[in-house]
Amino acid sequence: MKVDLGPITRIEGHLNVHTTVEGGVVTDARCMGEMFRGFEIFLQGRNPLDAQQITQRICGVCPYAHAIASSYAQEQAYQQAVPPNGRILHNLIQGANHLYDYLLHFYQLAALDFVDITAILKYQGKDPELTKVKNWVKAELASGKPFPAAPFLPRLSGNYIANTELNIGAIKHYLDALEIERKANQASAIFGGKFPHATAIFPTGCTQKPRIDLITTYVSLIQEVRQFIHDTYIPDVAAVAAGFPNYWEIGASKGGFLSYGLLPLSPKPGGERLFAPGVLLDGSVQKVDFERITQDINNARYSSPTGLKVRDATLTPAPHKADAYSWIKAPRYGGKMVEVGPAARVMIDYLQGHNPKVKSLVETFAAKAKIKPRQLNSVLGRHLSRAICAAVIADFLLEEAERLDPAGPTMADLKIPASGEGFGATEASRGALLHYIRIENHKIARYECVVPTTWNASPRDDQGTPGAMESALIGTKVANPEDQMESVRIVHSFDPCLACAVH
Question: 433 pairs with which residues across the strands?
């Protein structure tokens, strides 16, 4: 039986997943990015300083990560030193955006896979927001419309949280999270200029001066976000895990893991980061080598050469290419498929014993859930890893803000060379993000982005190996082959961003 899960809702962009189900098991899965954009093409010939602005338009959810990665790449190409304030401001902007994104993903994009929205019909309290949701759901169900309005309905058939009180509490937290997300975005915009697309981020730093009043406001907002993370978000993730323990064993990808590390602790290039970089292959963590990254396109809608390294990549659209099924390339590390994202970020840091807070949180939650750290490679593992990242980043941002020097420079005087090249690597909330820039005659001669969902939602590579999300879906038992709640929960756990993947 062949079933298309698309268009998959509660993700960014247009994704279809074509599945084959036999005997109640997904035996094949194909992730299809369904549009073409071509950012690398129209960046060519432009002023290099356009790059951190234009690449933000790849995505309206994680634009800051693109601005930061582009800035890192330009800094390397310019061979430009970075003042301490510059790197700190980058961290404060990007870190707050991570907190927003984790909360958005759990509450607005994934929680409704587990929460029974119809439980609100039993609500007897006086909270005006919950009463509004109750009346809306009641009216929609009574309307008889086959496709009621989003965001709560329609829903897939399957098992949801059975406890009415937990469901109503989760719906309340869904609403509360919207305000907390707004405050995280506000914190980012204090130094970034605005959200979603920052105007203040530049190579080597930021145009906004770190005035005392701005620092104070930023810290106050992050403190509120941090409290919500610890008091509400983490307990809600734990509640979902307790109600669906089988999802520690569902949705594991069948390859390695990659993380570039996140939030530099020093302005010096290549220095230590809050989360350590690394590649996890065959049980051991190796140092990241950008020269080992290639992109296969045999199953992607391009006619440019396949298997090229990042610095050599080209982009020739071929919409009618035979047997191709996606506008997403297939990145590989040393020829291996890898997963990127929060689970990769946490496992790679944990296995290196790098950040003691990461180690403590992983072991605490693993003990409570009675799992092994390797089980972070699962649906629940990805959700838990986001919560761990959120807790660690929130603490770090409060400390990092104290390191700002209001009297110090926030960026260097930029001098663009006639020629140069640079790699800029960071972690978007969804995973490893790499930008490459080559400058010739003071203009961009080549630009390439290898983004998180390009890795996770990649089609099969030239050897026929499925991408991370495809491999996580294959072998999944589904109760209802037409709905496939189990498969949708797997897809949502990756938090795919198709705008990024088909950039």
Answer: 426
**What is the domain extent for residue 426?**
2-116+160-501
Q: Which helix (H) or strand (E) holds 379?
A: helix 379-401
Instruction: Give me the pLDDT at residue 149, please.
Output: 61
In this prediction, residue 148 carries a pLDDT of: 62
Local structure of residue 56 (DSSP, 8 states): G
Structurally, how many domains does the chain consist of? 1
Tell which phi-psi region holds residue 38, choosing left (phi > 0), alpha (psi between -120 and 50) or beta: left
CB 495 within 8 A of CB 105: yes
Are 245 and 62 spatial neighbours (Cβ–Cβ below 8 Å)? no
Neighbours of 416 (CB within 10 A): 16
Q: Are the beta carbons of 16 and 34 closer than 8 angstroms?
A: yes
CB atoms within 10 A of CB 283: 8
> Within a 13 Å sphere around the CA of 138, how many CA atoms are in the beta-carbon half?
10
In a domain, 121, yes or no: no
Q: Are strands 293-296 and 308-309 parallel, antiparallel or unpaired?
A: antiparallel
Residue 22, in any domain of the structure: yes
Q: What is the mean pLDDT of the chain?
A: 95
Whether residue 151 is contained in a domain is answered as no
> Which pLDDT band, with edges at 50, 70 and 90, does 301 fall under?
very high
Task: Please name the residues in contact with 356: beta carbons below 8 A apart, sequence gap of 6 or more.
Answer: none
Structure token pair of residue 397? 């941002």
Confidence at 145, pLDDT banded by 50, 70, 90:
confident
On the question of pLDDT at 218 being above 80, the answer is yes
| Contact of 302 with 414, CB cutoff 8 Å | no
Handedness of CA 354, 356, 357, 359 (dihedral sign): positive
- CATH code assigned at 263: 1.10.645.10
Full 3-state SS string of 72-129: HHHHHHHCCCCCHHHHHHHHHHHHHHHHHHHHHHHHHHHHHHCCCHHHHHHCCCCCHH
Q: Give the per-residue pLDDT at 246.
A: 97
What is the token pair recorded at 445? 């001669």
* H or E stretch covering 205: strand 205-206
Average pLDDT (27-48) is 95
* 214, part of any domain: yes
pLDDT over 70 (residue 150): no
pLDDT over 90, % of the chain: 91
Q: Which residues pair with 482 in a beta bridge?
A: none
CA dihedral 297, 495, 91, 72 (to 10 degrees): 10
Greater pLDDT, 173 or 156: 173
Whether 293 and 332 have beta carbons less than 8 Å apart is answered as yes
